[in-house]
Amino acid sequence: MIRKIQDRELHEECGVFGVFGVPNAASLTYYGLHALQHRGQEGAGIVAVDAEKNFRRIKGAGLVTEVFDESKLSTLRGDMAIGHVRYTTSGGGGSENIQPFLFRHNSGDFALAHNGNIVNSQLLRDYLENRGSLFQSTSDSEILAHLIKKETRYHDRPRIFSIIDALNMLEGAFAFLIMTGNRIYACRDKYGLRPLSIGRLGDGYVLSSETCAFDVIGAEFLRDVEPGEIVTIDEKGIRSRDYSMYKRHEMCSMEYIYFARPDSDIEGCNVHAYRKESGRLLFGEAPAEADIVVGVPDSSLSAAMGYAEASGLPYEMGLIKNKYIGRTFIQPSQELREKGVRMKLSAVRTIVKGKRVVLVDDSIVRGTTSRRIVTMLKQAGATEVHVRIASPAMTNPCFYGVDTSTYEELISARKDCAGVCAEIGADSLAFLSPESLLRAGNRRELCMACFTGHYPTALYSRVEEANKECK
Question: Residue 7 burial by CB count (10 A; 0-12/13-18/19+): exposed, middle or buried?
Answer without folding.
Answer: middle
